[in-house]
Amino acid sequence: AVRKDGMALQYAAEDLKGNKDVVLAAVNKNSSSFQHVSKTADIWCDKDFVLPIVELSGTTLQYANDGLKDDKSLVLAAVSNNGTAVQYASDDLKNDEDIVLAAFTSAAKELGINVDDHMPLKSLVLAVVRKDGML
Question: Where do runs of H (alpha helix) occur along the chain?
Fold first, then answer.
């Protein structure tokens, strides 16, 4: 049913709301069905499940197992989708230059700032802060 209508997940049995294949089928069909996914299921320990989810919605990193919040490639995918996802990363990765750069690049793009791949981090941060009205 979720392959035809992702929102059908809301009517699924609780164990299906934590089933990797069912959830991925639902979310790929309709990303809004994510609201019906079990946030406590073991699937949040599975990188093969979490990666495509954070690529669709970076802030879903908050539901990932703590070990995955320390996985640089997974966190990079999350913050590239939504820079605010950095708040859910491990403390070590919150201080990682690549992660911070990706978060600010994502924020800049959301604010309509043209981002040059060679733009220094300091310039990028200043551009985001100025555009966001913080300066």
Answer: 20-29, 47-56, 72-81, 91-94, 97-110, 121-131
- Decide: 88 and 59 in contact? Cβ < 8 Å: yes
| pLDDT more than 90, % of the chain | 59
Q: Which pTM was predicted? A: 0.81
The phi-psi region of residue 133 (left if phi > 0; otherwise alpha if psi is between -120 and 50; otherwise beta) is left
The residue among 3, 1, 40, 44 whose CA lies nearest residue 20 is 44
Distance of alpha carbon 99 from alpha carbon 85, whole angstroms: 10
Residue type at position 88:
Y
| Residues, the chain | 135
Half-sphere exposure at residue 125, Cβ-oriented, CA atoms within 13 angstroms:
6
d(CA 61, CA 59): 5
Q: Which tens digit of pLDDT belongs to each residue from 68-81?
A: 999 999 999 999 99
**Greatest CA span in the chain, whole angstroms?**
50
Q: What count of other Cβ atoms lies within 10 Å of the Cβ of residue 51?
A: 16
